[in-house]
Amino acid sequence: MKFAPFLLLTATIAVHAAEPTPNLPPADVVARVLRTSPTVQAAAGQVRVEEANRERLSAGSYEWNVRLAAHQRKVLPSGAPDERFTEWNAQIERPFRLPGKAGKDEELGALGVSLAEAGHGDALHEAGRALLKAWFDWLRETAAARQWQTQSDLLSRQAHAVLRRQQLGDAARLESVQAEAALAQAQAQQIQAEMRRTLAEDDLRRRFPGLPLQAPEKFAEVPRVTGDEAQWRERILAHSHELGLARTASLRAASAADRAGQERLPDPTLGVQMGRERGGEEQIVGAYLAINLPGSARRAGASAALAEAEVAHRREAAVLQKIGAEAAATYQSATASRDAAQASHEAAQRLERAAEMTARAYQLGEGSLNELLMARRLANEARLAATQAGLDALERYYRLQLDAHRLWVLEEEAHDHEDDGPALTAAPAGSPVAMLPGHESPGVASRQP
After folding, report:
1. For the purposes of burial, counting CB atoms within 10 Å of the CB of 206, is it exposed (0-12), middle (13-18) or buried (19 or more)?
2. How many whole angstroms separate alpha carbon 54 and alpha carbon 352?
3. Which of 254, 284, 318, 381 has its CA 20 to 30 A from that of 3?
4. Domains and CATH numbers, the chain
5. What is the pLDDT of residue 398?
């Protein structure tokens, strides 16, 4: 029986050195970290369990049974002495599966292996999702800590300049107090940001040991998502491990229902026997056939299996609906967040220019310190928001790539490559999009479920 190619996944991750992923850890390191994840290793162990279970189902549960018996016969004829005879008999028997049942058991075993392999792939994918989220949480907290450090340094220089002007009699004591208060607030925010960064880093180290935690000096520009929603949705559905699990479970339940229906006709037991009676005067050799008489329990078992198959089919439909909705939402958030990040970046630039202009005006005596501190606070908040929006957009872009299997791609074995529908539009060579995974060619190779 040939199963859907995308279900049979190995536990390795392809490393594409020619496809850089800005602001992400190296792909080979990610591969090693994900393979050592306890959930992934547990899923790999389940594959071995199902392989053993497949062998068990293929062999069948029936075994040879030997019966040995010995007894003594005592004959009490009227008016004659007693007669005693040593007798014995031996039987060897074995139930046999009817034609078709063995093949169905082998099919169930193979589907169990496919289900475990799909679960292994799903564990890898979910571990990749968790790593991506934890990584960007750490990047966001690191960026916030850096920004508050920059703001504290700026306000420290500002407070020192105001203090110097006060000493020279060019500024009031109130301005010095205002500058020191603004500096204290920024330092408090910096301490909290450092605490959050440390917590995020510790969480990342504990959950994914081995990742090199060296934050980039600057963050990559968010690439534009190419292709429309339908194309991305189709690709995500074609590579969804969760959907693969539901489909394989549905196939297995249907196969189990067929097998339960076959059990309504019991398997026969064939045996041979040998015996000796009356002290060897009689030698017995024979064969026998035993068949269970089916009852209501077998009918109820077949009905229950059919109901379970229907439940599995409905669950598959629900998962298909869920994954489709999630794919559309992921695409929409990835496209919209890029525009929001650009708008936030432009707003931050304008407010930073306004803060610089206010600072020059204050130096020339044309503005108040309160106006300057307000301008710097607004510029800092805008830069924090812009950085966070940029990282959010980059994370959503990578999440879309990950769900579509264009980031940290899982290798597949023993399958022919098949086209998965409309190709996604490629970005121009040399563009920021073209430097990211999945943009090296105008087409997308994948497998159909």
Report:
1. exposed
2. 66
3. 318
4. 5-68+103-263+294-446 (1.20.1600.10)
5. 94
Please name the residues in contact with 167: beta carbons below 8 A apart, sequence gap of 6 or more: none
d(CA 201, CA 143): 13
Instruction: State how far the Cα of 286 lies from the Cα of 277, in Å rounded to an integer.
Output: 14
Contact (CB, 8 A) for 383 and 147: yes
Residue from 218, 232, 196, 428 nearest 335 by CA = 232
Q: CB–CB of 7/118 below 8 Å?
A: yes
Residues linked to residue 65 through DSSP beta bridges, in sequence order:
93
Supply 314's token pair: 């409905």
Tell whether the model's pLDDT for residue 178 goes beyond 50. yes
Q: Which of these ranges, 50-54, 73-77, 90-94, 425-429, has the smallest mean pLDDT? A: 425-429
Question: What is the helix, strand, coil percentage profile of the chain, to 5?
Answer: 60, 10, 25
Task: Give the amino acid at 427.
Answer: A
Q: Which residues are 271's β-sheet partners?
A: 93, 288
27's tokens: 């792909």
What is the b/e burial string over 341-372, where b = at least 16 CB atoms within 10 angstroms of the residue's CB?
A: bbebbebbeebbeebeebbeebeeeebebeeb
Q: Name the residue with tokens 């930073």.
A: 352
Contact 270/289 with Cβ under 8 angstroms?
yes
Residue from 412, 390, 391, 394 nearest 402 by CA: 394
Sequence-separated (6 or more) residues with CB below 8 Å from residue 389: 337, 340, 341, 344, 345
The whole model's pTM is what? 0.79
CA separation for the pair 298, 49 (Å, rounded): 28
User: From CA 168, how far away is CA 294, in angstroms rounded?
Assistant: 107
Among the listed residues 214, 51, 47, 25, the one whose alpha carbon sits nearest the alpha carbon of residue 132 = 25
> Are 229 and 154 contacting, i.e. CB atoms less than 8 angstroms apart?
no
- Measured CA to CA, the distance from residue 248 to residue 173 in angstroms comes to 75
Between helix 229-238 and helix 296-363 the angle, nearest 10°, is 130
Cα 443 to Cα 435: distance, rounded to the nearest angstrom: 16
Residue 365 reports pLDDT greater than 50:
yes
Rounded-to-integer distance, Cα 401 and Cα 331, Å: 10
Residue 289 DSSP SS3: strand
